[in-house]
């Protein structure tokens, strides 16, 4: 199944999608690809907002804003994502989680990828409308959607039957 279909399906059946991803076996390349594509989509989502900010405040040029966003999202964010996934696994283990560091990574990376299309929409809102109640509403929906996706994925990742060999 393609990733686009999985993303759409994950909004209806997030646990089933997570089980399917883990059933593929230990695939660190696939986990990293999910994180990379999610980071790329999040970076692209920032471009309309950065262009708007550069237009209204030309003291910082657009290319400098894009360079900073690229550094933060494409290079630093993945490092923090690995750290957050490891911490989530350790916390889940304290509460009886049976998964592994790999399953926790897949849960976080998949949740980021599943919510990335919403982040693209939020980037358009921030770029065309700017900061305001609309952007806050979309941001809140993204936060709720990500928490829902990650909670469901992590519960499957830390269950006893999710241990990947």
Automatic annotation (TrEMBL):
Protein topology in the membrane: Multi-pass membrane protein
Sorted UniProt keywords: Membrane, Transmembrane, Transmembrane helix
Bilayer-crossing regions: 69-95, 107-129, 135-151
Subcellular location field: Membrane
Main location: membrane
InterPro entries: Yip1_dom
Domain Yip1: 10-155
Pfam families per UniProt: Yip1
One GO cellular component term: membrane
Protein name as catalogued: YIP1 family protein
Organism: Falsigemmobacter intermedius
